[in-house]
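Review form for a predicted model. The reviewer records the input and the model, then writes brief findings.
Reviewer: anonymous (R2)
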Amino acid sequence: MDKKIITVLLFVIHQYYFSQSNTSKIDSLGTIPEVESFIRSCAKSKDDKLSKFTLKTIKDFNTYLISSKMKKKAKALGINKSFYKGDFNHDGRTDLLFIGDDKTCIQMSPDSKEETSCDVSVNVIFDLESGYVLKDVMRRYNNFIIPKVIKIDGMDYINIYYEYEENSLFSTAPEKIFSKTLTYKFDNFIEYNPHPGKYSIKKISYEAGPCYGTCPMFKLELNKNKMSKFTALAFNFMDHYDSETAANAIGNLNKGKNEGVFKSQIKPSDFANIEEILNYIDFPNLNNSYSISATDNPSSTLTIVYNTGKIKKTKKIYDYGLVGTYGLKILYTILFDLRFNQNWEKIPQSSLE
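Model under review:
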């Protein structure tokens, strides 16, 4: 057989199998019952929030969480379906964006005086090689967003529209609807930035404050290529459902006692990942403070010492509610995890005195 023909055949066979390997079950979903059945099949147990998930279009919701202004905006944007498809992490596989009710919130209907669901959910199920993975697209709990699939350079992204400004649960410009573009990076949704910064991060300090409960309280002092420190103030090493342990932790906190001070050199790959995230979210241009209107949430203070050229600068961000931006939420999760995924060595108390 002619070598050219063999080459063509091999190419066709390769392309066929490649296309088959990238075919997702999501591709075949077309009707609401099919999509609901698929979503529920992704539930890990009968108590999983996906197990009873019901698709809803934005106009069909009857809850105070979606204002008439937002419904009008959704109509103007042409968002009249309960699910959309796209390749949101750009891996060649189709993902599912869906809107609906996961039945995790109950309210009393003002008309019938009966209990009804008040949940509003916007999620994406990613079809990864490792399996299906669920990610929440909402900015904050019970803070509705309108999702719209868009194309940038031929790739899928999600534009979200929302009523409230970044630094408050309540907008100071109630007539305005804000928007931003999300991409999938660092294993979650994050504000799309086509031109990340190139700042050299020297030191990161992070302090997690108290809440009305047993939220972990701690301080991190992270130094690049040098020893770092973790001060466990309270509620870091406890079962949060154990009331006796919680009471003891509160007692120690009131006496000014902490749970220990630890030192370690942060793994270079972990520090580099944090540095990449900070550059991607353009941290120098973020707000200096963020807040929500609730009164029982934790707060945190993030301080970054960095170089821009030969000039050393400092950026401090206070965040009440820990939901300032999508990018900051990703960063906070990583910083919380650092308490347990580094080789921390406890510093003897005598060495601190």
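Findings: The first strand starts at residue 54 and ends at 55.
Further findings: The radius of gyration is 24 Å.
Recommendation: see findings above.
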